[in-house]
């Protein structure tokens, strides 16, 4: 069973701990700097590969050195990257993340080639042949806001593909635009802020109920240190976060998605899959970067 992650691909440069930005030409010495494959598609793909789930990724990067690195590091972790296209003259999306001592992560970001991803860049047979198709960052991949892509999603679901969706930004104009995907998705996994933006609701349970009304099978709202809320037609379940020392929260949402998908493929129900997502996210929170702490992890043991 193969997963395809489709959407945003980003190179992250992370440094910790950063308490302030140096003045002038001053230098602050740090404990750690990493460069990783990240983004709601690429980061989830790497996490899936690290926990033993066969995965291919599809998206767009620039024809530049950052794109070379991103494709190399994903392939090195075991991701099939033949669906990642190169866009001549465009920059690969990248973020610089100065990680605070408490694990918070302000960012500097260039969206790059993700904005140019379109239906013409995709292998339709790979999408319709996937066991799970994970849409990562549909709020910023504007070229996929296309009725023909929605029809492709419907075709894939009719053939047995399960479609999951996560978002990338917390910008209202972008997040609300992703609502058009909901009738074509089985499971949607926003964070709390995104869920409220998508629906205009005042609270997370109200937001989850509104999203269920759009036709999805389940809504999984991640709540940071408060865990997550899982909503289905059977009701709402609160899943607490695991009590772990937090080094960096970068990529915890992607890790939650990866664990959730692995749980579904392993035969767990939605709540059980969400508990696995919680455990995988906790591993990532304990290190620097969106794939930290996952080397050698067996999801069956979590």
UniProtKB/TrEMBL annotation:
InterPro entries: PfkB_dom, Ribo/fructo_kinase, Ribokinase-like
Superkingdom per UniProt: Bacteria
Keyword vocabulary terms for this entry: Kinase, Transferase
One Pfam family, short name: PfkB
Domain Carbohydrate kinase PfkB intervals: 14-290
UniProt GO molecular function: kinase activity
Protein name: Sugar kinase
């Amino acid at each position: 069973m193969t997963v395809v992650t489709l959407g945003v691909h980003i190179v992250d440069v992370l440094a910790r701990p950063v308490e302030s930005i140096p003045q002038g030409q001053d230098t602050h010495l740090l404990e750690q700097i990493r460069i990783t494959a990240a983004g709601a598609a690429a980061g989830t793909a790497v996490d899936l590969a690290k926990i033993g789930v066969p995965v291919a990724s599809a998206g767009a990067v620039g024809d530049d050195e950052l794109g070379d690195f991103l494709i190399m590091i994903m392939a090195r972790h075991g991701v099939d990257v033949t669906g990642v296209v190169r866009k001549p003259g465009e920059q690969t999306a990248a973020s610089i993340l100065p990680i605070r001592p408490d694990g918070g992560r302000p960012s500097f970001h260039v969206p790059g080639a993700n904005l140019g991803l379109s239906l013409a860049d995709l292998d339709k047979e790979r999408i319709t042949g996937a066991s799970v198709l994970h849409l990562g960052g549909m709020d910023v991949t504007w070229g996929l806001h296309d009725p023909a892509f929605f029809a492709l999603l419907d075709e894939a679901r009719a053939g047995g593909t399960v479609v999951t969706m996560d978002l990338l930004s917390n910008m209202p104009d972008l997040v609300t635009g992703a609502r058009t995907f909901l009738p074509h998705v089985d499971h949607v996994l926003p964070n709390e802020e995104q869920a409220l933006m998508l629906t205009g609701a005042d609270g997370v349970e109200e937001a989850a109920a509104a999203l269920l009304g759009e036709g999805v099978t389940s809504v999984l709202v991640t709540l940071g240190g408060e865990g997550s809320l899982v909503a289905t037609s059977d009701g709402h379940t609160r899943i607490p976060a695991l009590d772990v020392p937090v080094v960096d929260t970068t990529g915890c949402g992607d890790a939650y998605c990866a664990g959730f998908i692995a749980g579904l493929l392993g035969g767990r129900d939605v709540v059980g899959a969400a508990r696995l997502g919680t455990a995988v996210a906790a591993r990532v929170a304990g290190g620097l970067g969106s794939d930290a702490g996952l080397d050698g992890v067996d999801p069956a043991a979590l």
